[in-house]
Amino acid sequence: MRQLIFSLLALISTIVYGQEKIEKVLFVVDSIPIFHEITEEEGKLSEKTVDHFEVVTNKEKFGEYKIYDFDKLIFVFTKEYTKRADEIKRIPSFINKMYKVGDKWCLIGSSKPYIGKYIDYYLDGIKKEEGFINDGVDDGLRTYYYKDGTIKLYRNYSKGIPNGESGKYFQNGKLQCKGIFKNGKEEGLWTEWYSTGVIKWETEYKSGKAQLAKEVIKANSLFEKGLEAFEKGYYKDAVNYYNKTLELYPNYNDVYFHRSRAYLYDLKFDEALIDCDKAVEIEPLNKDAYSQRAFIRIRKYEFKDSRTLSKNSEITVYATKQNVEIPADEKSQICSDLKKGYELGDTKQMITDAIKKYCE
Fold first, then answer.
1. pLDDT on residue 47
2. Nearest-angstrom CA–CA distance, 322 and 318
3. 3-class secondary structure per residue, 98-137
4. How far apart are CA 49 and CA 93, in angstroms?
5. Options 1.10.287.130, 1.20.1250.20, 1.25.40.10, 1.10.3720.10; which CATH number does 214-358 get?
6. Summary count for the chain: helices (H), strands (E)
């Protein structure tokens, strides 16, 4: 049973006994019934985060869950939940305890627009989001949190409309952006930073419309043309557009990342690595840059001594090696970058597969 609790691959579980009986199980985590598979965003449970669990097999004791077709309830209580004061436990969850009637949020079982606080939690009991609802809509400060409990985003509302200061933070606690909303639109000076504390952009807004300087408009246009050229497979043209963008803004992290992609697809691995290094230097929390740097190294060895299969004016097809020997120091760097990208949130299947292949 403990193994079932902590795997939680599918919280609506079926347990098969022999060839005949199938037992349907509903998990209720910290008073919240789980009717779907848990996503990466919702977090995970482990023995370190769970305080205790209770198994109920008597349907007469199912209480509010009698209406569901389950044979067994497993109540899971996290350590964070057991530490909460009773008045905090009574505050409803926005996602799991409310539904919308028109544009108003109501508590399940009531058609009256909700008034009061709400708090959502990650699966392990850490606070995920909190705010205040008045007459069924957001009113006042709404705050989002990372899985470690630090602030991710805050925004002020007035009668359901963003009004007042709003800010977003990196996982290291540094401000990512900050500005003011007025009647749902950006107003005044908005500042965006890199996670190092260096300013990335400063933009003046009027009624939600950015008031951009001519050089910014030109740089954005060149960058967009580079992206368009890349999508069409014109990698050299993309690099040229990115080069011109960097002449205007030499510390534009996004351009180094995308120029690295263009170099990678053009099989210029050394140039691609240099640009990825620069992207990570400017923005150390760029998860995609770490993952990309790992795959640049992998492709560099896969395409080593490759031969041309076909070639025309638009595309060249190469034969590559899928099972290649990678030096230990390079493999260590690949593994390190894959794990760093995953840690920062790049949890795609190709990343987890690569971690298994290059980190074991």
1. 87
2. 12
3. EEEECCEEEECCCCCECCEEEEEECCCCCEEEEEEEECCE
4. 20
5. 1.25.40.10
6. 11, 19
What is the chain's mean pLDDT, rounded?
Answer: 88
Beta bridge partners of 337: none
pLDDT for 320 beyond 70 = no
Its pTM stands at 0.82
C-alpha 127/C-alpha 133 separation (Å) is: 17
DSSP for 246-294, written as a single string: HHH-TT-HHHHHHHHHHHHHTT-HHHHHHHHHHHHHH-TT-HHHHHHHH
Strand partners, 119: 130
Q: Identify the CA nearest to 7 among candidates 19, 25, 31, 32.
A: 25
Count CA within 13 A, CB hemisphere, residue 303. Answer: 17
Domain-wise residue ranges, the chain: 2-83, 87-211, 214-358
Tokens describing residue 245: 């963008």
Asked if residues 247 and 225 have their Cβ atoms less than 8 Å apart, the reply is no
pLDDT at residue number 89: 93
Where is 205: in which H helix or E strand?
strand 199-206
Asked if 289 contacts 207 with a C-beta cutoff of 8 angstroms, the reply is no
- H helix or E strand, kind and range, residue 167: strand 161-169
Q: What is the CATH number of domain 87-211?
A: 3.90.930
- pLDDT greater than 80 at residue 354: yes
pLDDT tens figures, 159-208: 999 999 999 999 999 999 999 999 999 999 999 999 999 999 999 999 99
Average pLDDT of the segment spanning 245-265: 96
Q: How high is the pLDDT of residue 96? A: 78
Q: Is 169 helix (H, G, I), strand (E, B) or coil?
A: strand
Report the percentage of the chain scoring pLDDT > 90: 73
Residue 217 identity (one-letter amino acid): I
